[in-house]
Amino acid sequence: MWSFLISFLAAFIISPLVIYVYRKNNWLDDPKKDQHVKKTHSEAVPRGGGLVIFLAVLFAATLILNFDKYLIAIFFGATLLAIIGFIDDIFDLNPYIRLITGLLASLIVVGAGIGIAYVSNPFGAGVIHLSQPQINFNLFGESHSIWILSSLFAVFFILWNMNIINWAKGIDGQLPGFVSVSCLFIAILANRFADSPAQFNVANLALIVSGAFAGLLIWNFYPQKIMPGYGAGSLAGYFLSILAILSGAKVATTLMVLAIPTADGVFTIARRILAGKSPFWGDRGHLHHKLMDYYGWGKRRIAVFYILTSASLGFLSLYLNTTGKVIAISLTTFIVFSFLVYSKIKQKQNG
Hints:
Layout: H1 2-24, E1 28-29, E2 45-46, H2 49-64, H3 69-91, H4 95-111, E3 118-120, E4 127-129, E5 134-139, E6 142-147, H5 148-166, H6 174-190, H7 202-220, H8 229-246, H9 251-257, H10 259-274, H11 287-293, H12 299-317, H13 322-350
Antiparallel strand pairs: 1-2, 3-4, 5-6
Helix pairs in contact: 1-2, 1-7, 2-3, 2-7, 2-8, 3-4, 3-8, 4-5, 5-8, 5-10, 6-7, 6-8, 6-12, 7-8, 9-12, 9-13, 10-13
């Protein structure tokens, strides 16, 4: 557990330093100046969580892991996300700029050879291979191959998780809590899979990421002293997706531990499109908003709910086969959808 403890302490120590710098420079998210409907905090708070996570993970990884071409590519992409997150903390970038840079970060790691070569068959034994079709070519005297379906699926998987996790950070302690727990279960699964192409220990990287978010949680839990911001949200989805791929294409497991934010994300996209709005512009229709606005849940309760549901689903994922995981994901999605539809109907009746 040294991997977890080192990154935890790094994030715990770095957080107040980032808070100090942001407050000194007045880089604050002030709801009195920017009265966006999605905001749930009432006092000016620095974002900066992305810098905390990036620096803590990089510090711990440098001490513990063996860097190879895969880990170098991972940190190249993470550096891009951290820089964009820092700029967004200050200037509130257009969401389409964030989307494009997220795509670039995904392409960096997939281009390095981190891809989803297969997924387990949810309808029977065996796996579904994604290695065909391929594009083969020579470059600088070396043979290269691009697995089209594998690469496209990996890019979509990473980019999707970056966005849906970012949407689940509106409440104090919400995002770092369930992300830390999710990474712990990825670490457990990574220990069961010994065929990773990377030379570094994937389970250790998962523990490092988990520890960094746990360290941030101490300062983000209600009443928050720092917010995750786009940087921490995007890095959460980025690292979780890559860890899932490197630990044996555990797509179903990752979707399971992220079932609540995933279901909320799918419903959000559908709701916004049906309303004729862009799916990328924020509003106050997420699950955590409904729990707070219409059911009177406090911020601590909502954060603990997200943590416990991810932990429960992660525990089940250790024992369910792929078909069982698909059933669990479908059932969770149905429950969340039903709750959000019911809340929407009640809102219209009261409104």
